[in-house]
Structure formats: structure tokens, C-alpha cells
């Protein structure tokens, strides 16, 4: 699909059809992480892909028992309906390792990090997944992960301490989600005017 066709279709979908997603499609979607940019080619992004029924139920449990709780009951099921859950994670240590290599040292020292590149790169990987899902004819949605849910996920899935969970991406065949659309920011907040988001030549 051409990028200009794909982009207008990019939106968070928070409800999925009870339809399996071919394994090869998922592999292509998550495989994009290897093409995502990363600072210094540190490649600190890590994905945990959960597709089996028990694992997905465990993800849902971790969210329900976490501080944000489960989804409202009178609305389309989001996490419960998703056939694929992808935890987008980052390993900060990969950045320190890479930037302590001779070609990256600044006056013999690791650079002073202007911003945490490990989170920047996780965001880039997340975007690749969102776009690749559309390219496969699928839909995707992102949920933040509160601290206590992240701890529960870490314990449930054996995620090492040096890997931080950045977000959950759900993927599947999109189903109507009018209830979510009505309450989530996309409909309740106006799009910021272009001139505010994008400035030309001088701030
Ligand atoms: C890092 C991140 C965290 C997000 N967390 C949530 C979330 O917890 N719950 C939710 O409903 N949407 C979440 N979203 C989706 C945003 O609400 C959504 O992208 C925004 O409202 C714009 O809508 P659109 O992506 O459909 O254009 C998140 C998006 C990002 C990038």
C-alpha cells in the first residue's frame, strides 16, 4: 500500500473481530522492528508477542488488576478481543553499551544523553507496528502500561529487570468501536492546528 493511502487509515482501533490473524502477517508486522531506526544502531527495542489464549488472558488480567483497571463494561471489548498483543519494550543498557564504544565516545566519555533515546526508539518501533498492521489489512491500537501492570506483566511473562515495558499494541482484524471513539481523545479533542505543530524556517 502506498504511504499516502495508508496514512489516512492510521487510527487507534480498540475492538477486533473474532477472526484469527495469519501467523505470517504477525511475523511481518513484528519483523518491522528490525528495520526501525535506533540511536547509534543500538537496537534496544524488544517486542514480546503474545498470541496464545492463556497468554492473552494473562495480559488482560494484569491490566484489570492494575491501577487503571479494566475497560468500561458498556463499551466494545478492547484487550479481550485482540488476537495479538505486542508489548513494546526497551533495553536502556544497549544504549550505554553502544555509546561506550570507541566511535561513540565524547572526549573519552559516554555522551550526556540529550533525551532518553531508548524511549525515542521504542516509539519508532511502535509506529512501524501500527503502519505495518494497516499494510497487512489489519488494525492496531496502543495502550499505555501503568507501573503496577508492568510489574505484573514482568512477573507473568518473565520479562527481565533490565527491559522496560513502554506500551502495549493490540493487533487484529478491526471491528467497529463507536463507544471508544466517542470517549477517547481523538473525538473529544480537536486536532492541533497545523501551524502550531509544524513551524517553518523559524519558531
Ligand atoms: C504512548 C501512547 C500511549 C497511549 N495510551 C493509550 C491508552 O492508554 N488508552 C487509549 O485508549 N489510547 C491510548 N493511546 C492512543 C491515543 O489516545 C491516540 O493515539 C490519540 O487519541 C489519537 O488518536 P488516533 O491515534 O486514533 O489518531 C496511546 C497512544 C500512545 C502513542
Notable traits:
38% helix, 13% strand, 4-stranded antiparallel sheet, single chain, binds flavin mononucleotide, alpha+beta, 4 strands, 203 residues
Structural class: alpha+beta
Which spans of ≥5 residues are poorly predicted at pLDDT below 50? none
The value of Rg in angstroms is: 18 Å
Q: Please report the distance between the alpha carbons of the first and last residues.
A: 35 Å
Q: What is the H-and-E element order? A: HHEHEHHEHEHHH
Q: What summary fits the major beta sheet? A: 4 strands, antiparallel
Q: How big a fraction of the residues is strand?
A: 5-15%
Molecular shape: globular
Which strands sit side by side, in order, in the main sheet?
Answer: 1-2-4-3
Total count of helical runs of at least 4 residues: 9
Mean pLDDT: 96
* Heteromolecules bound: flavin mononucleotide
In total, the number of strands is 4
Roughly how much helix do the residues carry, as a percent range?
Answer: 25-40%
What secondary-structure arrangement, pairings included, does this model have?
Elements: H1 3-6, H2 23-31, E1 45-50, H3 53-65, E2 84-90, H4 92-99, H5 117-135, E3 139-143, H6 147-157, E4 164-172, H7 178-183, H8 185-188, H9 194-197
Helix pairs in contact: 2-5, 3-6
Explain how this protein is built.
This protein has 203 residues and is an alpha+beta fold. Helix content is 38%, strand content 13%. Strands 1-2-4-3 form a 4-stranded antiparallel beta sheet. The structure holds flavin mononucleotide (FMN). Flavin mononucleotide is lined by residues 11-12, 142-144, 167, 184-186.
Amino acid at each position: 500500500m502506498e504511504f499516502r493511502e495508508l496514512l489516512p487509515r492510521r487510527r487507534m482501533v480498540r475492538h477486533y473481530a473474532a477472526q484469527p490473524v495469519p501467523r505470517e502477517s504477525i511475523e511481518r508486522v513484528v519483523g518491522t522492528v528490525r528495520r526501525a531506526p535506533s540511536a547509534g544502531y543500538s537496537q534496544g527495542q524488544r517486542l514480546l508477542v503474545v498470541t496464545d489464549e492463556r497468554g492473552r488472558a494473562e495480559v488482560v488480567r494484569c491490566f484489570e488488576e492494575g491501577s487503571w483497571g479494566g475497560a468500561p463494561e458498556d463499551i466494545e471489548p478492547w484487550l479481550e478481543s485482540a488476537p495479538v498483543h505486542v508489548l513494546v519494550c526497551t533495553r536502556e543498557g544497549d544504549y550505554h553499551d553502544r555509546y561506550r564504544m570507541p566511535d561513540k565516545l565524547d572526549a573519552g566519555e559516554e555522551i550526556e544523553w540529550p533525551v532518553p533515546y531508548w524511549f525515542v526508539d521504542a516509539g519508532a518501533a511502535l509506529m512501524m507496528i501500527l503502519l505495518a498492521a494497516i499494510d497487512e489489512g489489519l488494525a492496531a491500537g496502543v495502550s499505555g502500561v501503568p507501573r503496577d501492570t508492568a510489574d505484573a506483566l514482568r512477573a507473568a511473562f518473565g520479562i527481565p529487570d533490565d527491559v522496560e515495558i513502554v506500551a502495549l499494541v493490540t493487533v487484529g482484524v478491526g471491528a467497529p468501536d463507536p463507544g471508544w471513539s466517542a470517549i477517547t481523545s481523538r473525538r473529544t479533542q480537536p486536532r492541533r492546528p497545523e501551524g502550531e505543530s509544524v513551524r517553518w524556517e523559524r519558531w
